[in-house]
Amino acid sequence: MNQVPTIKLNNGTLMPQLGYGVWQVPDAEAERAVGTALEAGYRSIDTASVYGNEAGTGKGIAASGIPREELFVTTKLWNGPSQTWGRDAVLRAFDESLTRLGLDHVDLYLIHWPRPMRDDFVSIWKTFEEIAASGRARAVGVSNFRAEDLARIAAESPLVPAVNQIELHPLFPQAELRAVHAERGIATEAWSPLGQGQELLTLPAVTALAEKYGRSAAQVVLRWHLQLGNIVIPKSVTPARIRENLDVFGFELDAADVAALEALGAGPAGRRIGPDPAEFDV
After folding, report:
1. How far apart are CA 282 and CA 153, in angstroms?
2. CA 35 → CA 56, 102, 194, 236, distances in Å?
3. Contact yes or no for 50/79 (Cβ under 8 A)
4. Which of 21, 41, 99, 223 has the least CB density, counted as fewest CB within 10 Å?
5. Amino acid 2: pLDDT
6. pLDDT confidence tier of residue 3, bands split at 50, 70 and 90
């Protein structure tokens, strides 16, 4: 029995709160990795055009034999600087993602970066309105958008993003942006939920909690996300770690421990580890 709770998005779509991310998984390995995740009990898979593994992800989904309606598949538009992202280009990119995935629809389609210096994410969002209306994406949203970017969409479109997928972990807890999401009815989804490398997972404050709860450091951090209401998409290609990351529903952190993990962001190790959305345009 799949025990992962769901989050109701602002259009009524239900999204599993914990999913499997395939960032940096080579396409040739994606079929096996996705298959392992689905066999372990994951039902939400997060990929993106720029990851270069939509085809392998789609093969893993197809080979699983799991009914499509039981799965939640996310991919993203790579709105990079290589071209102008008018309506036709956005629709073509979406069609190409569906073809690579071997699907007739996705459950969530995201604009990968705001790229505010290009001043085109509002016009891209207008095409996302069309995609949502067509039913070929059950929900649409954004990734790496700042509060001011979300305000701009709100001022120029009646469609509120269902999700904003952002860098979020105890070293960068994004409390202010999470509050903006709550106010606007946008679900918060965390990428790099475990930070980068082993830095976060080896901090004494984290390892002490792992010992207290008899869990791994990664499980403690994922539990922190879940109790905050974040959607999380941990990534691993190791079968044991894939299963371990899903086994986070049999315990609960004390409120004081949730607060202590969030406080790490104000400590000496606290910082953003990924690109700054205000500047990123690669």
Report:
1. 22
2. 10, 15, 22, 13
3. no
4. 99
5. 58
6. confident
Structure tokens at 5: 């709770």
H or E element that contains 6? strand 6-8
Nearest CA-CA partner of 246 in 17, 26, 22:
17
Alpha-carbon Rg for the chain in angstroms? 18
- In terms of Cβ atoms closer than 10 Å to its own Cβ (0-12, 13-18, 19+), residue 240 is exposed
| pLDDT (tens digit per residue) in 158-171 | 999 999 999 999 99
Q: Cite the active site residues.
A: 51
To 10 degrees, the CA torsion angle through 62, 66, 71, 74?
-20
pLDDT at 1 over 50: no
107-154 pLDDT tens trace: 999 999 999 999 999 999 999 999 999 999 999 999 999 999 999 999
3-class DSSP assignment, residue 169: strand
In contact, 159 and 132? CB cutoff 8 Å? yes
- Both structure tokens of 40: 């372990």
